[in-house]
Amino acid sequence: MIHVISFGYGHDTPPTADFTIDVRKSLRNPFHDDSLRDRNAFDRAVYEHVRKTDGARELVRGLASLVMSFEFSTGRDVTIAFGCVGGRHRSAALAMMLEDELSLNGCDTTLSHRDIFKPLLPAGTHNVKETSA
């Protein structure tokens, strides 16, 4: 079983995982788009914004290969966690993308979003030298 988790660093400490992927500095942030800020990755526009970001699909494909190989070689459950600032946009969309990719490859998965419905964090917390466009 592969467990996929999304979370926000701004809400609490990261969950325990075999692999934790911090995307605060590597992918553009839907928070900086006024039309997407109050939404989350369950909204198709947010999901597509993240999916179409340069490198997002390649990241997901590479991670799928990594966690499938790790699960096979260890014979145990594997947990992978994606973290962004608030846990509503990038980390949640990537977790959904990875879960889809793993399912397409016949893997048993679980998906959870720890912080997706928590309130937006103040704007200043999103200014972690990250990609915004």
Strand content: 15-25%
Largest sheet features:
4 strands, parallel
| Molecular shape | globular
Indicate the low-confidence ranges by residue numbers.
129-133
Can you characterise this structure?
This protein has 133 residues and is α/β, with parallel strands linked by helices. The chain has one domain. It is 32% helix and 17% strand. It is built from three helices and four strands. The chain has helices spanning 44-51, 56-74, 90-104, and strands spanning 2-8, 19-22, 78-84, 109-113. It has a four-stranded parallel β-sheet with strand order 2-3-1-4, covered by helices on one side. The longest helix is centred in the middle third of the chain and has 19 residues, at 56-74. It is globular. The termini are far apart. Residues 129-133 have low confidence and may be disordered.
A few lines on this structure:
The chain has 133 residues and is of the alpha/beta class.
Structural features:
133 residues; 4-stranded parallel beta sheet; globular; 4 strands; alpha/beta
SSE map:
Layout (H helix, E strand, L loop, with lengths): L1 E7 L10 E4 L21 H8 L4 H19 L3 E7 L5 H15 L4 E5 L20
Parallel strand pairs: 1-3, 1-4, 2-3
Helix pairs in contact: 1-3, 2-3
